[in-house]
Amino acid sequence: MRDEASAAAGDPHDPAGLPTADADSVAVSGILKWFDATRGFGFIVADDPAIGDILLHFSVLQAFGRRTLPEGARVSGTAVQGQRGWQAVTIAEIDLSVALETMRDRDRARVDPNALAAEAGEWEEVTVKWFNRVKGYGFLVSTERPGDIFVHMETLRRAGVAEAQPDQRLRARIIQGRKGPLAVAVAVIE
Questions:
Q1: How far is CA 54 from CA 3, 32, 41, 105, in A?
Q2: Shortest CA distance to 130 belongs to which of 102, 154, 165?
Q3: How far apart are the first and last CA of the chain?
Q4: 37 near 66, Cβ under 8 Å?
Q5: Which of 44, 92, 124, 166 minimizes the number of CB atoms within 10 Å of its CB?
Q6: Torsion over CA: 111, 189, 163, 94 (sign)
Q7: Mean pLDDT of all residues in the chain?
Q8: pLDDT digit string (tens) for 110-137?
Q9: Cα four-point dihedral sign 118, 119, 125, 126
Q10: Is 35 in contact with 61 (CB distance < 8 Å)?
Q11: What span, in angstroms and rounded, lies between the C-alpha atoms of 1 and 73?
C-alpha cells in the first residue's frame, strides 16, 4: 500500500515519468481522501481494501478540465501498481454530488466580505500592487491609507475583474479585517 509520506518524499507533481494505462492497469474506484492543489496531488481511498490508497496526480484530471477535486468526491478509473504503491493513470468518472462541504476551523473564523460590506467605508481609489491567480489573492495600495490592502479573487470576480494586473487602478470599499485592511468590494474605474 502506498503511504502518504513516501509520496511526499518523491516528486509526485513532476509529470515526467508518470505511469500510463497498460495491460497491468486495473479498474479502481474510491473516495478522494484529500487533494493538495498547490502540490498537485492527492489520495483516493480505494473501495477495495487490498489496494489501499491510490496516488492521484493532477495531470490525470486534465481530461475532465480540472486540476483539483474536493474531498469526498467519488472517482473511478484505472491504476497501476508501481514500486511505491498504486497510482491512478486514468479517471473515467467523477461524482461530485457526494463531495464533502468541509469547513476547516480556520475558515469558520474568516470574515464574510458580503456580510461586512455595509460596514465598509466609502469608495477609495486603489492600485493593484500584485495579484496571484493561482493563490487566489493579492494586495492593493491606496494613497489614502498606509500599508497593503488584502483582496481575494472572489471579490474581484464579483466586480467582473477577470485578471488583475500590477498598477491597475480600481476603486475599493475597505474594512479592517482580522489581519489588516480587507477589500470587500471593488469596481473598475471607467
A1: 9, 9, 10, 27
A2: 165
A3: 58
A4: no
A5: 166
A6: positive
A7: 81
A8: 555 566 777 788 999 999 999 988 778 8
A9: negative
A10: no
A11: 21
Grid coordinates of 182: 480587507
C-alpha cell at 86: 498504486
Pairing of strands 85-95, 74-82: antiparallel
Per the DSSP assignment, residues forming a β-bridge with 150 are 139, 182
Element (H, E) at 156: helix 153-158
Residues 157-186: tens digit of each pLDDT? 888 888 889 999 999 999 888 788 999 999
Which residue from 76, 22, 5 is spatially nearest to 44, judged by alpha carbons? 76
Grid cell digits, residue 28: 479502481
Q: Which amino acid is at 158?
A: R
Amino acid at 173: R
